């Protein structure tokens, strides 16, 4: 099946679905001369685990994945500061 991977450029890859996320990430990194360090693959904005296969992650034909730099700091699922009771002073 064909899928698309967006990194610095958009690439069309021919895959079977049995490839791991790490293998696909390494392939794109070699095409663009990127290092794998601190890179993450996203599907619809959600990070994929490197050891998972593309098929297990729900990647279908013509899906677009993104390879982006991992953001340092922060917390997944953080919705902002918790505010205490409001003062009417």
Automatic annotation (TrEMBL):
InterPro entries: FUBI, Ubiquitin-like_dom, Ubiquitin-like_domsf
Domain Ubiquitin-like, residue spans: 1-74
Highest rank taxon of the organism: Eukaryota
Residue runs in coiled coils: none
Pfam families in the record: ubiquitin
Record-given protein name: Ubiquitin-like domain-containing protein
């Amino acid at each position: 099946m064909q899928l698309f991977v967006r990194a610095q450029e958009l690439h069309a890859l021919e895959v079977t679905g049995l490839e791991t996320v790490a293998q696909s990430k390494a392939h794109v990194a070699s095409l663009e001369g990127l290092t794998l360090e601190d890179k993450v693959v996203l599907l619809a904005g959600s990070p994929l685990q490197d050891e998972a296969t593309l098929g297990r992650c729900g990647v279908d034909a013509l899906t677009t994945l993104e390879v982006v730099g991992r953001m340092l700091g922060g917390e997944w699922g953080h919705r902002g500061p918790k505010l205490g009771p409001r003062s009417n002073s």
